[in-house]
Amino acid sequence: MSLLALLSVPASGMAAQRARTEVLVENLANSETTRTPDGGPYRRKDVVFTTSPQTSAFSSEFQRALGPHVDGVAVTEVVLDAREPTKRFVPGHPDAGKDGYVSFPNVNPAEDMVDLMSASRGFQSNVSAVVAIKDMIQRSLELLK
């Protein structure tokens, strides 16, 4: 396996964490949205990760010679929360029903902030892996001088 092929693994992790971050930020931004174009309150979203074989145009010959493919991560889908919305008694709200209750999204800002911190740390870990691989490539080139 070539060092260049290894770069595709943390790159896929960074892309997946970026997608996760975008969904979490959307959840936080819509935590109080009671009316959407589809009708009803905003539905919380989650990303689903899966392993994904990584290929690199630069290292296809090395991968064929050395055997198994390198696995990274990819976002397979974004799923909507299927739980019922939270009901709150807010009789003066424009979206209140006849009983005075309003349906709010099932978004827990504290939980999503913790998930956002986790995504940020995952992204930082992948950046560290890219830097380590870059350093290995640099040292390999210095040895070949």
Describe the protein's topology:
Elements: H1 3-6, H2 8-29, E1 45-54, H3 60-66, E2 70-80, E3 86-89, E4 101-104, H4 109-143
Antiparallel strand pairs: 1-2, 3-4
Shape: elongated
Quote the average pLDDT. Answer: 87
Number of strands: 4
Element pattern in H and E: HHEHEEEH
Total number of helices? 4
Strand order of the largest sheet: 1-2
Cα-atom Rg, whole angstroms? 22 Å
Tell me the distance between the termini: 22 Å
Proportion in helices: 40-55%
Beta-strand percentage? 15-25%
Low-confidence stretches: none
Largest sheet, if any? Answer: 2 strands, antiparallel
Notable traits:
20% strand, 145 residues, two-stranded antiparallel ribbon, alpha+beta
